[in-house]
Structure formats: structure tokens, C-alpha cells
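Q: Convert this sequence to C-alpha cells.
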Amino acid sequence: MSEDPTTLLPVLLVCALALLALGTLLGWWARGARGSTQLAVLRERSRSLQERAERAETSLQEREAEAASSARVLEAVTPVQRSLERMERQVTALERDRVEQFGEVGERLRHVAASTERLDAATTSLAGSLASSGVRGTWGETQLRRLVEHAGMLARVDFDEQVRAVSDHDREVRPDMVVNLPDDRVVVLDAKAPMTAFLTAQEVDEADRPGLLTQHAKALRQHVDTLSGKAYWSAFRRTPQFVVCFVPTDATLAAALQADPALYDDALAKEVVLASPATTMALLRTVALTWQHDTVERNAEEVLLLGRQLHERLATTAGHLDQMGRQLTRTVESYNQLVGGLESRVLVSARRFTDLGLPGEELPHAPGVTAAARPLTAPELTARTDRPNE
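A:
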């Protein structure tokens, strides 16, 4: 730390007084011969004090320069210090927000963990339930019904469930669903695909999973053979010769096809179409479009029939109009003939009574009718009038 320059001022004053005193003593000693030795000593001390005074002045100047430099540094550092204070306040606020956010994230993670536990429990319960063939069949039928309704179809209008019928072998069959097509056609769907081995494969280690998936493919192949043997298509008139085997999940069908790549083609050869929810939705959308096209075609036929009827009725009305116009023309001609006869034969004789001086009003002239009925010129209206026998 540099000393305050004001603390050196007394020292300088003392040095100045000492020099003055020494100067006085030197003058006093110089008068006598005996003080020559003391004079030399005093001169030496005087030079020493002067050197100390010079050093003190130099030190004072250096300390003043150092103080001025420190003041400039302090002035330059002050904005930086303020910025650091503001930054410190911002860091404190950010730290407080971070603690709050970490608390919220922790709370949400606890909720996610709880939801995951509930989902695991529900999944375990569902997997246990689907192990039963009856429950699995009901679940598959429910999934199929939701899919069909999502495609915009109505029960007992566009599709029927659990329809009883008799096949060609006099065997009663009851497919899970029959989708109606235009012209009394139907498509038969079954929703009882096996899933036991597939669900078990999801709970075992990776090493044991391929064997279970192979069992799953074999079970699905056996189900295809069963559906092929029932020959659902023979129990319904005008239906394609195949049955759609609905597999409730895409992953279930994909796993079976991965384990047995020839399964799909072999099923087609046996008149069984393996369909996942995605392919079933595409099939149902196609059926819905078929119904829309059928409705458009039926409406077009009705419009064509109505057009023909309207055209015939317009032709008949045109014939009546043409006949009426001709009759009006003949009526005008008869009227003009009557007016001509009246003017040339009757009124001429009647006016002679006036010439003979008989009182009475003058007989008016009866003008003829020059306007004629406008003939039909439109081709649509004259087509029928050109045929006089009709």
C-alpha cells in the first residue's frame, strides 16, 4: 500500500529547518579558526540531509504518480465491478430457477414412474387374459368391430356379426363377421388368430424367443388349415372364394411371417388371406369406396331414367302446343273470312239504310286479325311435331 503524500510534508519541513540551522551554524563556525573541523562535519551532515530531502521529494513524486494511476485504474474498474454485480444477481436468479425446474422434473419423473408401473401391471394383466382362447377370441372380435366402425360402416347395414349359415358339406358355420358388398356380395372375416406363443415370447430372454416365435408361426399355420377346411365361402352366395383371417396386431402377423416366410403364400393357396389391422383397414376402405361407386351408379341410372321420362313428356307437351298453335291459326283464318264476308256482303247492304235517310248509328268497320301464332322452332320441341301420326 502506498503512503498518503500528506504524511511526508512534516518530514520535508523538518529537513528544511535543519538545513537552515546548519547553514547558520556553518556561518558561525566559519568565523573562528577552531571550528574548521566541526564545519567539515556539519557540511557533511548538510549534504547528507540534502540528499535525504531529495530522495524524499523523489519518493513523494513517485507516490503521487502511483496514487493518480491507482485512481485511474479504480475509475476504469468500477463499470466492470458493476457488471460483475449484475451478473452475480442473474446467476443467483438462474440458480433459483434451476432448483425449481429440477423439482418439477423430479415430480414429473415420479408421475412417469407411477404411470409406467400401472402400464406394466395392465400389460401383465392383459397378457394373462389373452392367454385364454375365449378371451383372445372376444378381444379379436372387438378389435375387428372397432376397425370396421372406424372405416365408416354400420352394423346390420354394411356388416353382420356371428352369422349362421350352412356350407356345401351340410355343416353349420358361424363366421365372426360378414361384410356386405354391392349386388348381394359378401366378404367373410375370422378374428380368432392364435397369440399364446407370441405373448410368451415377449416375456422370455432373447435366446429363448426364436423358438417361441417358431411355435407361434406353426400355430397360425394350423389355424389357416382349420379355416380352409371350414370353407366359409361355400355357405354364402356370390362371395369370393376366400376367407380373411384377421390378426389383431401388426406385430403378431409380422413375427409369424418372419419365422415362416412361406406362410402367407401357403395361406393364399388355401383360400385364406392373412390380414393385419393395416391391411384390413385398406380392405374395408376399398369396400366403402365400392359402395360409394355403386350408389353413384344407381343414382346415375335413376337420373338417366328421369331424363328420358322428362324428355318424353316435353315432347308430348310440344305436340300439344303445336296443335294448339295450328288451331289458333285456323281460327284466325276463319275469323278473317267471316270479317271479309261481313264487310263485303252484309255491312254494304246495311249502310244503304243510312244513305236512304233512316236514323241510326253508323255501323263500325270490323278489322281483320293480322297476328299469327308463333311456330315452335327448338329442335327438342319440333322433333315430335314433325311426326303427324303421333
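Residues 38-125 form one domain.
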